[in-house]
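The material for today's practical consists of a large collection of protein records. Read left to right, the backbone structure tokens trace the chain's path through space. An example says more than a description, so a record of this kind follows:
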Amino acid sequence: MLIDVVKNTNAESPEDQFEQKQIMKHLTSKLNENQMKVINMLFGLDCDQMELKDVAEKMKMSKESVRMIKVKAIEIIKQ
């Protein structure tokens, strides 16, 4: 089939994927465990992306607590 022969130009190369993972590790290395979990779940870094309410349920926290953790984590990453 043609689909099996045509290269997916949107696919990332293994090198690009590795580089992205290294950048993410560096950016998130300053986060504590809860901050890392929240960022991972909300942005789908190591799992499927989740909504705020789902993250709150999974972590047994209020949505506001998860939101505050997210805001603080993003501040840390931006530094």
Remarks:
- The helical segments are 2-5, 14-28, 33-43, 52-59, 63-78.
- The two ends are 49 Å apart (CA to CA).
- The chain has a mean pLDDT of 84.
- The CA atoms of residues 26 and 72 lie 17 Å apart.
